[in-house]
Specification:
The complex is a heterodimer of chains A (453) and B (338).
Chain A: H1 2-17, H2 21-28, E1 54-61, H3 68-85, E2 111-118, H4 123-135, E3 141-144, H5 148-161, E4 164-167, E5 184-186, H6 191-206, E6 211-217, H7 220-235, E7 239-246, H8 254-261, E8 267-271, H9 274-286, E9 293-294, E10 297-298, E11 300-305, H10 308-314, E12 322-325, H11 334-347, H12 353-372, H13 377-384, E13 388-389, E14 397-399, E15 406-407, E16 410-415, E17 426-432, H14 434-437
Parallel strand pairs in A: 1-2, 1-3, 3-4, 4-5, 6-7, 6-8, 8-11, 11-12
Antiparallel strand pairs in A: 9-10, 12-16, 13-14, 14-15, 16-17
Chain B: H1 2-32, H2 39-57, E1 60-64, E2 74-78, H3 79-84, H4 86-93, H5 95-117, H6 127-149, E3 165-166, H7 168-171, E4 180-181, H8 182-204, H9 206-216, H10 218-223, H11 228-250, H12 260-275, H13 280-297, H14 300-305, H15 309-324
Antiparallel strand pairs in B: 1-2, 3-4
Classes of the chains: A alpha/beta (453), B mainly alpha (338).
Chain lengths: 453, 338
């Protein structure tokens, strides 16, 4: 409709002015005069909203399967982020994040809309859902997920299709290591950072003469976490007695826990997440591991990647257990408070770390588009690469250009002994400064790939 | 030696759950000829009987939590504790065993309603259709549970007095370090008693004997003027109660979520196939056997020789059995055989 009008206007004007007879001739001949179109030489790209008044984002989260509750929380955060970007609600982190070019009028003046997909926490389902969003719904960006397996699969697809992927909760070193992609960005921390953050606390609390036994989820995240935690604990003098891989979703871990009893180990490290962690931790406690004395020391259990939702699932068993987390709602900086307030008022409970990372990722993408002045992904990528910001809940943060990994403070937390409320399940033991968890960009290998695909 | 002893206990314990579920499965197949893929969901619903009772017992008065300033948060104190003090706390503590009282009538009802309203229309239909409809039913049931209780596991504690570990090592002369959780020992005892009760019912009561006669030769029993269909409906209900109770008692071992049934269903089917379709002693024996095999195969010493064996052992056994003895360990001649 608008194109016809444009042509009509142009024709009328050209005829009236009588100054561009050639253009008129060209129009009649069906050739459009290129000098009338803005960005005439710009390349096309997927997800381009063009002249539409809105832009679509794709929220690809686990809506069914074992991480459905986490997915639901991610979706809540995304909806809140969309509200804030569109200028509704109290603005949340839009009031605290700096630098920020978002004006509360959508992205580049276009209202933000969204479509949702279900990853089912399965790589193939997640890819299919992301593909549908890109091809059918013409989304400018895909985001979400609660598993590294899914994140790496969807990130690969997004690279092939030339659409930016802002990863949700993914903690494997591979996501921004050997499997990193130009079109993939991770705000969440990773296994290496967990190791670096928690090791000094373990040294303080449990000493340097410890013998650790690892139970590890048998997929990319588990493997890299085992490797990172093993290296970090051996660095503080601990010995690794054994590392045992367990199938994802094993349910009953008793046959893996009983060998720990007589292994001579005095620390059990659970490289499990979600439901697996809830089950393995609960069962380890049932087997009396926490009441046990080995080598003259109290037996301890460590959960390197911890979350409030998991602490809730494990109930009593989670009390006193140390771990790390990307963010926690009890933080008192302005950004965290603004987010928790918006989220709490909207939904009646505080956000999880998954919700936090998804909310921030959405704002970061929107802001990068605003800074680039276009939705063209290669321009937006350049704005995100090396972007430094503050006021988003983890102190001054850098989106490292070389591997698209965010560097920020990491929290070491402990399951609270006497919770004051239903949500007050973790206490922050230490806010580990960013400098302590940094590492060289080439440490985990990988290639980002081209800007334009 | 200690490790082997513990793995045997683990296997018996796991086998107890497999056997209880498989018992119901094989009972339903033997009586009604139905391959019931919703049986896992029944196990899961039993577990959620415990969750429901715990939720009811811990209905709480909400007091605004002043420590949370960003939004309205609440602290909760159960009414039972407010009204009855320590007695109230004790009742909440014993919620899992108390759930049995709730679960028996509820599961019986669920079983009978399920059979009367849906499954009976599929008696004469091919097994493939029975599998499809019961599998669909299982998905509906688990989605209903998810809608009501969320997707995260909901922890259920065993009563305080049995929440610790028993020094079983000392009893068997294996040293102080060999301990095993009390609740798992109780679960093992519970499964043995339940299996015993089901067998006694089928072997020593007239009702049970008629049911067994019906399993062997339905037509003749019907010709004798016995309404065998009604008895089979009750048997379906009993199978649901057995699976439901297995679910209730399993909650302190494994925090239940809506997917619990599916996790156990496939394994239980393998148990039934290995034991012999329709054979009750087969289901029990195969349940314990596969439980123990699974436990042994996950020992580090075994995994060093056969990496990944712990994840395939059960299916490996099933393949071998199907190839060499299709009717299963204790199956009747002719079942699953051409």
């Amino acid at each position: 409709m608008s194109e016809t009008k444009l042509i009509g206007n142009v024709s009328r004007r050209t005829i009236l002015k009588g100054s561009a007879a050639t253009t008129g001739a060209a129009l009649i001949g069906g050739t459009f005069p290129m000098h009338f179109i803005k960005n005439a030489h710009a390349q096309t790209f997927r997800g381009d909203p063009g002249s539409a008044s809105s832009v679509k984002l794709g929220f690809n989260v686990p809506q069914t399967g074992p991480y459905a509750d986490e997915g639901a929380d991610e979706l809540r955060a995304y909806q809140l982020a969309v509200k804030h970007i569109n200028g509704e609600g109290d603005g949340g982190m839009l009031n605290t994040m700096k630098p920020l070019e978002l004006k509360g009028n959508g992205i580049l003046g276009k209202k933000v809309e969204f479509v949702t997909g279900d990853t089912q926490t399965k790589s193939d389902a997640a890819r299919a859902s992301a593909k549908r969003m890109i091809e059918k719904d013409n989304v400018a960006m895909v985001t979400g997920g609660s598993s590294s397996g899914v994140a790496i699969a969807v990130q690969g697809l997004c690279q092939e299709m030339g659409v930016i992927f802002m990863a949700g909760l993914t903690h494997s070193n591979d996501t921004t290591g050997k499997d990193k992609k130009r079109y993939g960005f991770r705000h969440f921390f990773n296994a290496y950072m967990s190791g670096q953050a928690i090791a000094p606390v373990l040294l303080d609390e449990y000493g340097n003469e410890r013998r650790a036994y690892h139970l590890t989820a048998d997929y990319t995240w588990g493997w890299t976490q085992e490797e990172s935690i093993k290296a970090a604990t051996e660095n503080i003098g601990w010995e690794t007695v054994n590392t045992v891989r367990t199938p994802v979703g094993a349910g009953d871990f008793s046959q893996y826990i009983t060998p720990v009893l007589n292994s001579g180990a005095d620390v059990l490290i659970l490289n499990h997440y979600g439901k697996d962690m809830v089950n393995s931790l609960t069962q380890a406690v049932q087997f009396g591991l926490r009441d046990k004395q080995v080598n003259g020391k109290n037996f301890e259990i460590v959960v390197p990647l911890y979350s409030r939702l998991m602490a809730q699932g494990a109930g009593e068993a989670a009390k006193g257990i140390l771990g790390t987390t990307n963010w926690h709602w009890s933080l008192t900086d302005a950004g965290s408070q603004a987010f928790v307030k918006s989220f709490g008022q909207e939904y009646g409970f505080p956000p999880s770390q998954a919700a936090h990372t998804c909310y921030v990722q959405t704002l970061l993408y929107a802001n990068a588009c605003e800074m680039a002045g276009t939705f063209a992904p290669w321009e937006v990528i350049k704005q995100l690469e090396g972007f430094e910001f503050d006021g988003a809940g983890n102190g001054p943060t850098l989106y490292r250009a070389e591997d698209h990994q965010c560097f920020k403070d990491v929290l070491v937390v402990r399951g609270k002994e006497n919770p004051q409320s239903n949500f007050d399940l973790l206490e922050v033991v230490k806010n580990v400064p960013r400098a302590q968890v940094e590492y060289p960009a080439d440490m985990f290998g990988g290639e980002l790939g081209p800007y334009q695909v | 030696m200690d490790a082997i002893f513990l793995q045997i206990l683990n296997g018996l314990d796991k086998g107890g759950a497999y056997a209880l579920i498989a018992l119901g499965l094989t009972l339903v197949f033997g009586t009604l000829g139905v391959v019931n893929f919703a049986h896992g969901a029944i196990f899961m619903m039993g577990a959620f009987c415990a969750v429901t009772l715990e939720k009811l017992l811990t209905l709480s008065v909400k007091v605004k939590d002043e420590s949370v300033t960003f939004f309205d948060a609440y602290k909760e104190t159960p009414y039972l504790e407010l009204w009855f003090g320590d007695t109230g706390t004790a009742i909440i503590d014993w919620s899992v065993p108390l759930s049995i009282i709730l679960a028996v009538p509820v599961m019986l009802l669920i079983g009978i309603v399920m059979e009367r309203s849906l499954i009976r229309y599929f008696y004469k239909r091919p097994h493939a259709e029975q599998i499809l409809v019961t599998f669909g039913l299982a998905i509906v049931l688990q989605e209903l549970v998810k809608a009501a209780f969320g997707a995260n596991p909901i922890p259920q504690g065993a009563p305080d007095i049995v929440s610790g570990s028993a020094a079983v090592g000392a009893i068997f002369g294996l040293g102080e370090a060999v301990v095993y959780p009390w609740w798992r020992l109780i679960y093992l005892a519970f499964s043995l008693i339940t299996i015993g009760l089901v067998f006694s019912f089928l072997h020593f009561t007239t009702y049970g004997m008629v049911v067994r006669a019906g399993m062997a030769d339905r037509e003749t029993v019907e010709l004798l003027g016995i309404n065998i269909e009604r008895r089979f409906t009750i048997v379906f209900g009993i199978a649901a109660v057995v699976a439901g109770l297995a679910g209730v008692m399993y909650t302190p071992v494994l925090p239940p979520d809506y997917h619990l049934g599916m996790d156990f269903l496939v394994l239980s089917f393998v148990v039934v196939v290995v034991g012999g379709m329709g054979s009750l002693p087969g289901a029990v024996a195969a349940g314990f056997l596969l439980g123990i095999l699974q436990s042994f195969s996950s020992m580090t010493e075994v995994k060093d020789i056969f990496p990944g064996i712990d994840q395939i052992i059960i299916y490996l056994v099933a393949v071998v059995i199907l190839l060499t003895r299709p009717r299963g360990l204790l199956g009747r001649r002719g079942v699953m055989e051409s």
